[in-house]
Structures
1.
Amino acid sequence: MARLHSRKRGKSRSHKPAQSGVDKWNDYTPEEVELFVEKIARTGKPEAQIGQVLRDQYGIPNAKLVTGKSIFQMLTEKSLAPKYPSDLMALMRKAVNMHQHIRSNKGDKLNRTKLSHLESKIKRLVKFYRGNKLPAGWKYAPETAALIVK
């Protein structure tokens, strides 16, 4: 299937292979993994970076297979979950930077087009997260995004 705003195709085999159980060489208990997640989260890292640290430093390729819970679920249990999802925050940071660029470079029409594509991605994500990870009446606006990002 083609990408939405660029006429490119998706990457072939870009997903992790299916795995049914915990690796035999894994020596960590679920409680230890949850403590690692809590310790790393207190440093301010988002979920994706927590997973990378677990993989690279502790040798835990998939925390969900060990604990039975996702990293986000572990963070919400310990009330360490971020207020906004990390993928939405990354897109909002990008949009704020593009707004600043367009303010200083008024003739940049290509970036204006790309900004509208980016904002449509943000609005789709907000629709997906509304009610679960975002408040029911929350809407995206560039001014509020600038305040949230800073």
2.
Amino acid sequence: MTFEPFAISVERGRGVTLVGLSGEFDVAAAEEFRQQVWPLMTAAKGGSLVIDLRRLVFMDSSGIRSLLELDAESRRDGFELVVVRGTGPVARAIELTSLDELIRMVDEPPVAQ
């Protein structure tokens, strides 16, 4: 298995901020996620923050915890959090933790308004 570095991309549309994650979302990536994504919450107020997991190849409990923390912040700060489901090992991590029962998850990202 080869290592795939964690990367974050951001696209902003009217009413939607789309954050694409790729590579491996593990304990080493959790702080980078927090530093880059938390500031986006202010821009998302009154709109949606979409976290796209489809390009991740791996996610451990640190990634799950980061998404749960972001969900808690969304409820406090008044923006909608939407997570686009991942595939393979990421889908398995979501299934094992029942994350999809706690966070709004979709198969495709919503279109910007």
